[in-house]
Each structure stands twice: as structure tokens, then as C-alpha cells.
Specification:
The chain is mainly beta. Helices cover about 10% and strands about 45% of the residues. The strands form two sheets. Strands 1, 3, 4, 6, 9 and 12 form a six-stranded antiparallel β-sheet that branches. Strands 2-5-11-7-8-10 form a six-stranded antiparallel β-sheet, with no helix packed on it. The radius of gyration is 19 Å and the shape is globular. The structure holds calcium ion (2 copies).
Length: about 200
């Protein structure tokens, strides 16, 4: 009898395991035409002396046919942004999935692949929450080649240096998240590549 119960329980766990299989969600693969400006597919720019150029790179890629190539010169006092998602100034920056269509409770991190250059530049990865509040995760360009960067939602912090005028500034990361952006922090100059932005299943 004990053996029968054990077999039954083992079978139940097996079924439960199959049903609750973890599946990550691909948010963005940076495919298709890459351009800036009002009609562009990437919302990017720079100011106060910094400069950034964004193109597609078919040679260095992690998934699909290309990656997002970011050539930057970040000077002291300057700023820049390279953003994709919803509610941005450029018209065609959408992810592969609408934020409202995502069950955010199923995921605990946002991940992406970065092709590092070993420059030791500091890179900010920001997400904008449903209240337009910007949250930041910091990483270092201290490796070469592709590496997956895992940014757990509970390790983001609300930006203290700047927030949009319409940010709720409630110190809560409110879902759905609407967009993300990369910003190499000054002083730094170089080229980085990004690809394969996903939500990690819990
Ligand atoms: Ca790609
Ligand atoms: Ca908020």
C-alpha cells in the first residue's frame, strides 16, 4: 500500500512538473529596420556633449539575424538614452509583446545579452513602470563576447538623479513595465551590442 501511494505521488509530481514548465518570454530581438527619430524603431539620443549612434549589426548577433549596435561617447555632465518599448517619442519602438498582455506575476527578472568589450564602462539599464517611474539596474562591461545579464526586478532602484515630469515617484515598481533603455555612464567611449531581451520565468 505504501509503495502504491509513493508511486502515485511520484506520478503526480511528474505531471505537475510538466504542467508548470518554466517558459521565458522573448520581449525584443532587435530585428527589422533600425532607425532613430520620430518615425524610428529606436528612441535614442544624447545631450550636453555626449554622442550615441545606433545601428543594426548582422555580423555580431546572439539570436535572429542581427543585434543592436550602440557606438557611444559619454562625457562628464552628458547624458544619453537608447530605448525600446511603449509610450516613447519614436513611433515604431514596440516590443514583440504588448505590456498589458503579459502576466507579469509569472516573471521575476528581465534579461538580455550584451557583447562586452572589457572596457570597464558602467552601463545603466533602466525600465519605466506603469506610473512612468524610471528604475535602474547597473552592470559593468568587464567581459568580452556575449554574456547574458540577469536583472532581477527586486534589484532595480528608483532613479534619484532624474525622473520624467509625469512619473508617479511612489517608490513602487508598478507593472506593467512599458519600456527599457540602455545608458553607458560617463566617462566612457566604445561600442556595445545588445540582443535577446527576455522575461525570466519564476
Ligand atoms: Ca536579434
Ligand atoms: Ca511607480
Amino acid at each position: 500500500m505504501k509503495k502504491a501511494i509513493f508511486v502515485l505521488l511520484a506520478a503526480l509530481f511528474l505531471v505537475a512538473g510538466c504542467v508548470s514548465q518554466k517558459t521565458n518570454l522573448l520581449l525584443d530581438d532587435f530585428e527589422g529596420g533600425i532607425s532613430g527619430g520620430a518615425e524610428g524603431s529606436v528612441d535614442y539620443g544624447a545631450g550636453a556633449g555626449s554622442a550615441v549612434e545606433v545601428t543594426a549589426d548582422p555580423g555580431i548577433k546572439n539570436t535572429g539575424a542581427q543585434s543592436l549596435k550602440v557606438a557611444f561617447d559619454a562625457v562628464s555632465g552628458g547624458y544619453m538614452w537608447v530605448a525600446r518599448g511603449f509610450g516613447l517619442d519614436s513611433k515604431h519602438t514596440d516590443w514583440l509583446v504588448q505590456p498589458q498582455a503579459i502576466n507579469w506575476k509569472k516573471y521575476d527578472a528581465i534579461t538580455f545579452f550584451m557583447y562586452g568589450s572589457g572596457s570597464n564602462a558602467r552601463i545603466a539599464f533602466d525600465i519605466k513602470d506603469s506610473g512612468n517611474e524610471l528604475w535602474r539596474f547597473m552592470l559593468d562591461d568587464n567581459f568580452t563576447g556575449w554574456k547574458q545579464i540577469v536583472c532581477p526586478f527586486n534589484e532595480f532602484f528608483a532613479r534619484g538623479d532624474w525622473q520624467p515630469d509625469n512619473a508617479d515617484k511612489n517608490a513602487q515598481l508598478n507593472f506593467p513595465v512599458k519600456s527599457f533603455q540602455f545608458e553607458p555612464r560617463p566617462p566612457a567611449k566604445g561600442v556595445l551590442y545588445f540582443d535577446t531581451v527576455e522575461l525570466r520565468a519564476k
